[in-house]
Structures are given as C-alpha cells and as structure tokens.
Write a structure and sequence with these properties.
The protein is mainly alpha-helical. It is 55% helix and 0% strand. Helix 2 packs antiparallel against helix 3.
C-alpha cells in the first residue's frame, strides 16, 4: 500500500484505500483511481489533525495514476432491440349466408314477407303525413 500508516482519525475510510490498492494490482486501474479519489473526498470531510501525511501520500498516488493516462474501459455494446412482433392477420370475411331452403309447409315463400313489408310501408306513409303537417305548422308560425 503506502509507506505512511493510516492514522486513527481515518480508520473509517481506510477500506477505500486498501481496496483501491487491490484493484490497481488486479488489473482494474480505472476503478482503483476512482475509488481512491472517493476515499480522499471522504477523508477530507473528517478533518483529522494527524491525517495530513497519509492524505498527501494518497494524493501522490492519484497524480501517478492520472499521469499514466488511465481511461475508462469500453462499455459492452447493448444488444439490438427485439424486432416488433408481426401484425395479426386480418380477420377472415364473414361467410355468405346460405340460400334459404324451400318451405315444406305448402305456402308460397314470399307471403309472409310481403305482408310484413306492406305493414312497414303503411307506417312510413303515416310518418310522411306527420312530417307534412309539421311543415305546415312551421309555415303558419313564420307568416
């Protein structure tokens, strides 16, 4: 580590400096440098009277690491995003209605339908008269 022993006032941050030394020897100089700088930052907040020589030694180590031009290791590239799922196929068209089978009851096929249609026409005609009456009332109110 260093030739200056760690003072009593900095025992709380000594772990940062020890770990920085391990990382520097273990092939991770960038991480060691950042950890040592963080340890110095914390140690300066403690303001121990006996911390001066130890901190000066740590500053010297940071300067040496900086002079070695330590760079951040390259990041691993992120994997490309997964492709969007294929859109669902359009729904199949509704099947055509089956032709109506001939009735077996003996009557004509169209009899029931004609009676229903005729009833609907009468109702429509009644609506037309009511509309005509309403228009006449409007004309009287205007004039």
């Amino acid at each position: 580590m260093s030739d200056v022993p760690c003072p009593q006032s900095l025992l709380g941050v000594k772990t940062y400096f020890l770990r920085a030394d391990e990382l520097a020897k273990g092939g991770k100089p960038y991480v060691a440098h950042r950890l040592r700088k963080f340890g110095i930052e914390l140690a300066m907040k403690v303001k121990g009277p006996d911390a001066g020589p130890y901190l000066l030694r740590q500053f010297d180590l940071v300067d040496q690491e900086k002079a070695a031009n330590i760079k951040c290791p390259p990041r691993k590239p992120k994997p490309p995003p997964a492709p969007a799922p294929a859109p669902a196929p359009p729904p199949e068209p509704a099947p055509a209605p089956a032709p109506e089978a001939a009735s077996t009851e003996g009557g004509k096929e169209g009899e029931g339908k004609e009676g229903e249609e005729g009833g609907e026409k009468k109702e429509e005609g009644g609506d037309e008269k009511k509309e005509g009456e309403k228009e006449g009332e409007k004309k009287k109110g205007i004039g």
